[in-house]
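TASK: fixed-backbone design
INPUT:
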């Protein structure tokens, strides 16, 4: 049975003025439910064996069954074999795909799903050029660059490196917590924020209290942000 979610509709910057929330690195059904009931718009599941938050198709299926309707599910991949992606999609009815490696645009677009392209941000990375290259992406996810990890670093990057004038919705990731997400939203004005380690009790296990605090901080920052916008 398919769930009701936003697969057919790409995010847009002119939508309702509210910063969306994705909680990534979900490994357990109870964490997915905590995220959904706590106010998350989307959850992410990592299909990358090198990650401490990796899940397989069986785990992902159990997580999916735990979710209420209207929660978008995102599968995170890092330079996968195409047959691996197809195999997972046959068993797990994901709404969106997120590609976190060096995948070509044609590869990302080849699975009959909308996709998000992750960009690991550091000085010299040409974000507008990547946006142009991945014209088929529904959003860019901007994350912290490190040499030894492709995500989930728990580290912020310099939000000043985000250029103005990007046309695609921006999902801001990288070391976000309840304590700094308000500043991130006020600085970068992203369409959405993405959190993993910042709401965990330990790697791969989310903390309901930290989820609630993060969601509340996003809501508070958003109310100030939009209240200050010109009419």
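OUTPUT:
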């Amino acid at each position: 049975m398919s769930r009701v979610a936003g697969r057919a509709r790409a995010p847009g910057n002119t939508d309702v003025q509210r910063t969306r929330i994705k909680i990534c690195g979900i490994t357990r059904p109870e964490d997915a439910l905590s995220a959904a009931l706590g106010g998350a718009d989307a959850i992410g599941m990592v299909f990358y064996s090198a990650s401490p938050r990796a899940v397989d198709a069986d785990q992902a299926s159990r997580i999916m069954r735990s979710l209420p309707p209207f929660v978008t599910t995102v599968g995170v991949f890092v330079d996968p074999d195409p047959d691996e992606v197809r195999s997972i999609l046959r068993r797990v009815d994901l709404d969106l795909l997120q590609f976190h490696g060096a995948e070509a645009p044609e590869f990302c677009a080849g699975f009959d799903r909308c996709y998000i392209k992750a960009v690991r941000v550091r000085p010299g990375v040409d974000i507008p050029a990547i946006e142009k290259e991945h014209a088929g992406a529904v959003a860019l996810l901007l994350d912290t660059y490190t040499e030894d990890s492709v995500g989930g670093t728990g580290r912020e990057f310099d939000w000043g490196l985000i250029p103005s004038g990007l046309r695609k919705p921006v999902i801001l990731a990288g070391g976000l917590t309840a304590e700094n997400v308000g500043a991130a939203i006020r600085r970068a004005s992203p369409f959405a924020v993405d959190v993993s380690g910042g709401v965990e009790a330990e790697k791969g296990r989310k903390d309901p209290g930290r989820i609630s605090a993060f969601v509340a901080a996003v809501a508070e920052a958003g109310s100030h942000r939009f209240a200050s916008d010109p009419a």
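COMMENT: The beta strands are 20-23, 42-46, 72-77, 96-99, 114-121, 139-144, 170-172, 192-195, 200-202, 205-206.
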